[in-house]
## 1
Amino acid sequence: MSGRVLVGVKRVIDYAVKIRVKPDNSGIVTDGVKHSMNPFCEIAIEEAVKLKEKKLIKEVVAVSCGPQQSQETIRTALAMGADRGIHVEVTGKDYETLGPLQVSKIMAALAKKEDAQLIILGKQAIDDDCNQTGQMTAALLDWPQGTFASEVALEGDKVKVVREIDGGLETIKINTPAVVTADLRLNTPRYATLPNIMKAKKKKIANMKPADLGVDLTSRLEVLRVDEPPQRQAGVKVETVDDLDSLMNNWTVFHKCTQRTSLCVVLIPLLETVTPEDMRKEEC
Amino acid sequence: VLLQSAVVDSALSAFRSICGEDGVSLAAAVREQHGKDESVHRCRPPDVVVFPRCVEEVSAIAKVCHKYDFPIIPFGTGTGLEGGVGAVKGGVCFSLRNMDQVLDLHQEDFDVTVEPGVTRMALNAYLRDTGLWFPVDPGADASLCGMAATSASGTNAVRYGTMRENVLNLEVVLADGTIVHTAGKGRRPRKTSAGYNLTNLFVGSEGTLGIITKTTLRLYGVPESMVSAICSFPSVQAAVDSTVQILQSGVPIARIEFLDDVMIDACNRFSSLSYPVTPTLFLEFHGSERSLEEQVNTAEDITQSNGGSDFMWARDPETRNKLWKARHDAWYAAQALRPGCKAYSTDVCVPLSQLPQIIMETKEDLIENRLTGPIAGHVGDGNFHCLMVVDPDDPEELHSVHLFTERLARRALAMDGTCTGEHGVGLGKRALLREELGQTSIQVMQGLKDTLDPKNLMNPEKVLQLRRV
C-alpha cells in the first residue's frame, strides 16, 4: 500500500459572508468577497493529518481545482499538515461551469497517477451543496465509498466507516483503495498556527492542467438563472378559533406558544420555509 | 422621555431619511430588547431604536439628537453585566449591529480594524486561516467595540492583557456628531508617544463620552500547542501562594483560574464529577511542544511544594476539555444550586497578596448572611467573582445580596483594590467609584465629561453620577 491519501479542498465563499445575487441574476457576487476553504474540506484535511500523525498513512496530498487563488486554499491545507499540494488550473468559463462531474474525473485521474490508497473529500461544498463528487469519484474508479463519515478507522487493508444516515448511524467496512467523504462530526479541524503557515510556504505545490490528465471539462449543465429566496412576509396573529378556521384552507398552521391563559397561533404563508430561527423570532 | 410631538415627528422623520424606513423602530418589543443587558438591572427601554449602517449615519443621527437634546445610548450585543444600556432618561438607542465588517487586516503587523457589529468569535472565525487570533475572551460573544467601551477582560488576561492593552486606535462619534480618530486616522503603530492617550480615555468610558464605531486591535499568534492542568489545594492560601510563585518563576501561564470548595461542590453535582471538594486551580499553558514541557514541570513542582495534590494535565483537546469541564460549566452549576433563581456575578479585584484574606472574609460574610455565592476567580490578576444565586422575586433576598456586594466592594477598596475588575461601573457602582477614586479624581473625570459632552447626552446616569446643571 502506498500510504498516500489524496484530499480534495475547494475554495468557496466564506460561510460567514452574506451572499448577494448579481443584478442580472446570472450568478452570485464573488468579486472582492472573502473566500476560504470549504468547511467540510477542512474536516477532510484534519482527518488525513490525524491518520498521518497516528502513523497509519505516510503522505497527505491536497488537491484543488480552480484559478490562481486556489493555491491559497492549498497553502491552508499545507499549514494544517498536508505534505504537498497539486493545483489543477481551471479558469474562465471552464471554472464557472466546473462541477462534481469534472472534478471527480480529475480526482480519479490523479488517484491513478499518484497511486492513492485513500481519497478523503468533504461531503459537499457549501456553495453548490451538490454532495456528488465523492460518489462520482468512487464510481469512476470502481472503488468502494464510505460517505457522510462521522468516524473513520483504518484496519489493515480495510476501512471501517461510521456513517451518519437518516435513521441514525451505520457502520460499514470497505476495502482500500476507497473514497471517504467527511461529515460535520468527524472531527474539529485545527487552527493553522503561524509557525506552520511559515513551514507551509516551503512545501511544494505542483501545477497542472486538466488536459494533462486527459480530462474533458465540458459541462452538461447550464445555469439559467439565480434568484434570492423570497422575502420573509409577516406572520398573522389570530385571536379566535373561528378566524383560524376561515384561514385554514390556504395556510399552513403552526401551533405556537401556549401561555398559561391564552392560545396564540401564528399562520405562516405556505411558500415559506420556516426555520427554527424564524419560529424563535415569532414567539410572543 | 421625548415630550413635544412636533419635535418628535421632526426628529423621527430625520432619522428615517438618514437610516431608511427599516432603520428606525418604535416597536415595543424592539425597544425592550434594547433596554436591557445580562445584568440584574431591570429593563429601561429607549424611546426609539435606530440602526445606522455606517459612521456617517451615526454622525448624522447624533447631530439630530444633539439639536433636540435627546439622550444617546450606544448598543452592541447587549451582553453587559452592569446595566450599561438601560435608557434611564429615555432617548435614542443606536443599535450598531448592522455595521459588521472586518476592515483592514494586516497579518504581518498583527493588527485588524473592526466595526461594532463584529463579535469576538466572529473575528476569530474570520482569522482562522491566518494563524492569528484576538485572545481577550469575556464570557459572552460580545461586540469588540462594546468590549472596548467597557474595557473588558477574560480568562487569559494574565498573559495577553485586557482591552486596555490591546486597542491601538478608535474611531469615535461624539455627542454633537464630530468624528474623532483617537490615534489619528488609519494609524496603527505598535507603540507611540504622540500626545494625550485619547484611545485609552475612551476605552472603558461605557458609552458616556462617545459612540465607538471602529476599533483597531492588537492580534497574537495562535498558540502552537496547549496543555491544561488542574490541581487541588488544602487552602485558599496555598492556591494563591502557588499562583504568585508560578508568576514569579517566569512561566508565561495563559490561564490560571480559581474555584472555591462551594463552587467545586456545585460543579461535581451539576456535571457528575468527583473532584475533591477543596480550593482548586485550573491552569492552561500555551507554547511550543518543548516549552510546554518545561512550563508544566515548573508549575507542578511549585504546586506540590505548596501542598497541592492530584495534579493532572492533558494535551489533546478532548481530555483538556474534560479537565476544564468544571470551570466551563461553573456559571450553570452555580445556577443549578437553586433552580428558578438568577445568577448575579460580583466583580472585585485586589493585589494578589490580599486575595486569600479577602476571599476568607467574603466566605465568612456569605455564611453569616446565609447567601449562596460560589466563588470563581482569575486568580492570576487578583480578580474574583462571587456567583450570587438569588430568587428574583424575593425583595428581601435581593436587598441582602445588594448589601453584600457593597460590603465586598468596600472590602476590596480597603485592600488597595477596585470595585470592578472587568464588568464596569454602569448603573450600580457609581457611588463606589466615587469612594474608589476620591473627590479630586472624580472631579477630573467630570471635567473631561463636561468637555466632551456638555449637554450630558451620552448614556446618562452611567459611570458618573448626574451633576445638577
## 2
Amino acid sequence: MEEGERESESERRSAPSQTSDQQTTTETSRQTPETEEDDVETKLDISSDKFDPLLALYSPQVPLPFPNIRCFNNIAEYESFMKGGRGRAKPENVEKRLRKAQKGKADPERIERLKRLMVNNPVEEEGEGSGVKRQPRRRKAAKNVLTRMPLHTGSPLGELNRCVQEKIRVKVHIRTFKGLRGVCSGFVVAFDKFWNLLFEKLKVQESVALSAVENQKSELHSSSSRLTNQTRRTDPRHTQERSEHSEKDKTTLKAAQQFKTKPKVEYGRVHTRHVNQLFIRGENILLVNLQLE
Amino acid sequence: MDIVSHSIRERTIAENSLVILLQGLHGQMTTVDLRDESTARGRIINVDAFMNIRLEKVLYRDRLGFMSSMDDLFITGRNVRYVHIPDHMNIIETIETQLAKIHCVRNFGARKEYSKNK
C-alpha cells in the first residue's frame, strides 16, 4: 500500500518527494489528490502552520528558507553561537574564520600587513634602555619592574629612583636578626617595591656575629666548642670566656625558660670587601642613606 | 629547566619585581649569601617568583665556617640575603631579555602565522 501511494505521488509531482514514513503516507492517502501536492509543500514549508517536522526530517528535499546558513551539530552549539561566544556571530569574524580554514598556505598579504606593524618594534626595544616599552598593537602600556621604577615619585622609593637616575652613591645598612650587621656603599642600578636592590661597585663592611646565643643550649655548646678552633676570628679565648659565662647563665635558668633567654651576640671584627654586582633582598635592609657630595 | 614559569601568577610577580633578574641568571655560577650568614656557591638551576633558589654542584659554607659540598641545594626565598651576580652579566639587558620571554609566552596563542621568535 505504501508503495502504491508513493508511485502515484511521483507521477503527479515533478520533484519526487517520497516519504518512507508510514504515518505520513497514511496521512497523505486520506487527502484528495489535488491538495496532496500543496499539502506536502506546506508541510515542508517551515513557516507554514501545517509544517510537519517528521515529514521534513525524512524527506530528501526540504525547501530551506536560508540554504547557505551555518550548520550546527546540536542545540547547545546553536545556543553558544547565539550568545556571541568568541565574537563568532560577527560578520568580520566569519571572514576571519574562512581565512583560517585556508591556514595551510601562508597568506603573504597578511604577513606583509603584520610586518608593517611590527617592523619598528625590534629596533625600538633595543634603542630604549630602561624606558617604557611601546607596543605596536593597541595594548595598554607594559608594566614591568623597569617601568615601575619611575612611578614612585614623591615617596621614598621615588627618592631611590632619583639615585638610580643620577647615579648617586648610596649607603645601605644591613640588618641581622636584631640590630645592625653592616653597611654597604655603592650605586643602585635597579630596585623594586620590596626594596630589593641591585648594586654596582659595592663596598661591603660588615661584622659577622660569632655566636648567637638564642634558643638551644645544645647548639651553643657545640658552637662554643668550635669557637676555640677558629683562628680567623678575633680573640677566641676572650669570646670563649664570655660565651661560657653566658652558658652558665643559661644553665641556671629552667628548661622551660629556654626559649626566653636573652640573646647575647658576640661580634667579630669588621670585614670589608668589594663586590662588583650584588643583589640585596629587601627584607635585610635597615635603612638607605644617600651620600650626596 | 623552565625558562619561564608556567603559572600566570608567578609570571606576574616575577615581572614586577627584581626576581626576574635572578631568573635571568639560570645556569650561572654564583654565590648566595644566606640570612644566617652561611654562603652557598653553585650553579643556579632555577629561581621562582618567591626567590626560592635551586643550586647544583654547591660548595656550602655554613655560618660557622665549615665547608661541605652538595649536588643539589634548595634555598627558601626568605633566607636569601645577597645574591652575587657574575661580573660579566649586564643587568638591564638580562632583565629586558627575561621580560621579552614573558611577553612571548603571553602572546603565544594569538597569531601563529607570524612568529615573534626570530
## 3
Amino acid sequence: YPLFQRGGPQLRIFRPNFFMLAVRPGVPQPEDTVQFRVSMEMTKVDIRNYLERIYNVPVAAVRTRIQYGANNKRNHRNQRVKKPDYKVAYVQLGQGQTFQFPNLFPEKEQDEETRSFDDFRDKYMEKEKQKQEGDPRRGGVPDWFGL
Amino acid sequence: MAALGAWRVLRPGRRWFSETVPGAPLPPGGPLYPPVVASITAKSKAAKSRRLQRFNQRVHAAATVEEKLRLYGKLQRPKYTVYPQTFALNADRWYRSFTRTVLVPGMPPRGAAAKPPVGAAGATLEAGKSQEPGAEAPAAPEAPGDAEAPGAAAGAVPSVDIGELRSLTCDALLQESFYQNKKRPFLYRDQDHTPGPFLTQLVSTLAASLSGRNPLLAASSLDLSPEVNYYWHHGEEVVVHGHRKGRVDPVRFQIDDNPHLQIRVPKQLPEVVPLESDLGDVPVIDHKPSKLPLFKKQYENKVFIGSKVADPCCYGHTQFHLLPDKLKRERFIRNRLEDQIEVVYRSNGIASLFAWTAAQAMYQGFWSEADVTRPFVSQAVVTDGKYFAFFCYQLNTLALSAETVRNNPRKNICWGTDSKPLYDVVEDGNVKGFNDEVLIQLVHFLLNRPKEL
C-alpha cells in the first residue's frame, strides 16, 4: 500500500474491535450519566464519535477508567485464574437528556391457575415437612428414644 | 487509683477517664457521687457525641479568633476540593446544594436613598436597571453633555460623570490591546496577555476616580491575585475503604480560590434582605459529590479571606474573577455545549463568594455551631475580558454540618446576572459597540456602601 498522506485516497480500511455495552451502574449515577463497558483500546474521543455518528446520541462529556480483574481465584490445579480487565466509560448526555437503566426482569402478573397451583404446592410441602418432624410435644427428641 | 496515677504519669495534662478531680473536697449538701454520663473513649455513638461536644466546647471557649480557626481546621482528613472555575457540567446546581444557596436571577432591587444618583440617567436606572438597553442608549449620549443632574434628588452627593468613566475604560482597553506592542501570546496564555492587565487597570482607575464619591473605597485595600480559602462540612457519608471503614463521617469540602482582584473594606456592606428571608429553593442532590466529578485530597484546612485576622479591612466589598483559557466561550460553542457557558459564570460566582463571605464570618468568630447573627454581603464580577457577569451574595447561615443543618431554616442567597459584552470589537484605535449598562452596573458595585457613610 502507498504511504497515506492527508487528502490522499484511503485504500485501507481498519476494523478495530470497538464495542460498547450499556450496563446497570453498581452505585447510583446522576440522571444524565450512562455507564458503558467498552473495548480496552477505545479512547474518550472514540467513544464520543461512536455514539454521535452511529446512534445520533448527543454527548456532553466522557470519563473512562480501567477496571482491573482480580487474579486471586484458584482452579483445581492451584493455578491462579484471572478475571478479565475491562474499561468502563461514564457518558454524560447533552441537551438535557436523561437515561434510566430499564428493569429487564419485571414482575409478571400471575393468572388464577398458576396462583392456585402455587398455593396447593406450598400446602403439600408443609404437610410433608410436618410428617417428617414428628410429635411437637416431644420437643425434638427422636421417637426411638425412650423406654 | 493506681491505674489512674500511672496514666497521669504517661500522658501528663490529659485526663481522659473522668472529668472530676479525684480527692477534691465535695461541695457540702451536694450530690455524693459524680454525674453518670456516657464514656469518652468507648466505641459507641454516645461516646462519639460526647467527644464532639467536648470539641465544640473547646472551640467556643477559645480566646482569640486565630485559636478558633486553628482548632476548627486541626484534624486533617481526605476532603473534596471544590474549584470555582470548573468545566464540570451543571456544576452550579451541585455547588448550590453544597453551600445551601438560592440563586435569584437579576440584581437585587436597590433603595433610591442607598446610592447617589448617576447623572441624567439616574431616573431611568431606578426604574428598570439592566433590563432596557433601549432606554440606556438615548440616555447615555446626554450624560457626557450634562455632568450635574438638574432634577436629581439628594443633591448633597455630586453625581457621577459616565462619559469620563467611559473614556477611562476605553483608554485602558485600547492601551492594552492596540497601542502597546506585545508579542504573540504563548499557547493557552491568552487571558494573561490582554484581558488580565486590562481588568487590573480598569478596576484601579475606576476605584481611584470613584473614591471621592465613596469614602469606603478611599479606606479600602485592593489585592492583586489574593488567595481565598474556606473549609466546611456538609452532610454525612459512610467511609468506604481503609482502616476507618464503616464509620459515619461528615463530608468535608475545601475551596481554594485565586480571584484576579479583590477590594476589602473596614466596614460591612448593608444587608440586602432580612436574615430569615426565603427567596427560593435549594436543589437537593442525593448522589455522592464524586459523581460531579469532584475529587478527594488531604491537605491543610485553610480559612483565609486575603489578609490575616488582625488586618483592619476584614470585610469584603468586591471580587473580580478572570476566566481561564480552558473555559473560553469558543471552546464551548465548538463542542456544542452552549448552555454550559452561563453555568461557568454562575458556579464561579457562587463558590467564590460563598468561600469569601463564610471566611469573613469566621474571622468575626462565627462558625457552624455559632451561626451568624447578621448577614454578610459581598459582590463579585466574573469576566473573560469581554463578557461581564455580576453577582451579589448574602450569607445568612454557616451551619451546614449534618447536626446543625437539620433544624436550620435559613438559606444563603445569590443574585446573579447573565454575561453581557462590554464592547463588540476593538478596531483601529476605536472601541465599537460600547455597552453603557455594564459600565453603569460596575460603577454601582463600586459605589455600594453602608447607609451611615
## 4
Amino acid sequence: FSAISQSTMPAYKLYYFSIRGLGEVPRQILALADVKFENVGITKEQWPEFKSKTPFGQMPVLEVDGKQIPQSFAIARYVASQHGLAGKTPFEAAWVDALADQYKDFNNDFKKFFYLVLGFGEGDLEAAKLEHGIPARDKFFPLVVKQLKSNGTGFLVGDSVTWVDVLYAEGSSRVAHEVPGFLDDYPEVLEHAKKIHAIPQIKKWIEARPV
Amino acid sequence: MPAYKFYYFPIRGLGEAPRQIFALAGVEFENIGISDEKWETFQKTETPFGQMPLLEVDGKQIPQSFAICRYIASQHGLAGKTPFEAAWVDALADQYKDFNNDFKKFFYVQLGFEDGDKEEYKKEHGIPARDKFFPLIVKQIKDNGSGLLVGSSATWVDILIAEAVSRIAENVPGFFESYPEIIAHQQKVHSIPQIKKWIEAR
C-alpha cells in the first residue's frame, strides 16, 4: 500500500439528489477524511438521463478518476478504508461492517413508518408508528446502547471514529429531529450523535451544507 | 491459523455463502448447527445481536453474514485485488441484498414459510424483482469479461449470488429461463473444485 501524495490524489465526484438521504453519509465521510470532492446534485429533471449512465440505475454514485462505484455502503467503506476510518484491524473492520448492516436491517423495517413521517407514500401514521416504528426502534437501539457501553470509548468500534459512527449519528439525529422525543429513552444514542457531529470536519460540513 | 467456529441453523440459508467462502479459502472451521431447541438459549446468552450466522475467531464473535463473508474473504484474496475491485464486490453484494429484500416477499411464500397465493406473489414481487436485478448482473458479467463478477478470479460475491441462484432455481422451476448467463455463472462458480467438493459433501 503506497502513500498517496497530494498531487496524485484522485478526483472524486459524488452524485446524488440535492437532499441528505443516502448521500449525506458518503459526503460526511469525504469531509471527515479531508478529501476534496465535487458534490454534484442531480435534479429531478436531470435524473432520467443521468440514471442510464449509472451502473445500477441508482444513486449515490462515487466517481473516482472517472470510474464509478455505486451503493452507499460500498462508497462509504471505499473512502473510509483508504483514510483510516474503517477500523484499525480486520476484526474491527468486521464489526464496523456488522453494525452498518444491522442498521440497514433496522432501517428496512423502520422506513415503513419513517417514510410516512417524511411525507412519502400514504398510510396511517399512528398505526405505522405502533406497528413498525416503535418495535423496530426497541429491537435495534438497545443493541446500539450495549455496543457503546461495552466499547467504552464513546465510539461504536475501537478508540476513534469510523464510518459507522457517521452512519449512526446521521440516522439517529435525523429521526430525533423528525419525530420529537422518539429517542428519549436512548440518551446514549443521542450523546453519540452529538459527539460525532462535534468532530471539527463534520461540524464544518453540517454548518456549510446546502441541505 | 486462528480457530474458527461458524454458528448457524443446520440449513443453507444465510449460512451457506460463508461456509463456501471458508471452503474456497481452504480454511478449516468448525461448522456448528444450532437446532431450534438450542436456539432460544443460545440467542440470549451467546449472540451479540440475537441473530445468526455468527463467526467466532479465537473466541471473539463477529455477527452479520456479509461482515463475516468479507472478513474471511479479505484475508484470503477473495474480496477483490484492489480497493476499487473490493468496492465493486461490496456494491454487487448490497445490490443483491436490496433485490432479496423485495424477492423474499414471494420466495418465503413459495417455500411455504409464509401464507399467500404463490402465483400472485410471483407476479407481484418475484418477477419484477428478478427483472430489475438480474439484467444488472448479466451486464456486469459481460462487461467484466472473465465469466466472474469482478476481476479475473472468484470473489465472495460470486459465491453469494451463485448460491442464491441455485437455491431459487431449485425451488422455482424455470425461473431463470431468460437468463442463461446467470445459470452459466452459477455453474462456473459451483464447479470450482473446493466449492464443488463442499456442495457434494454437505
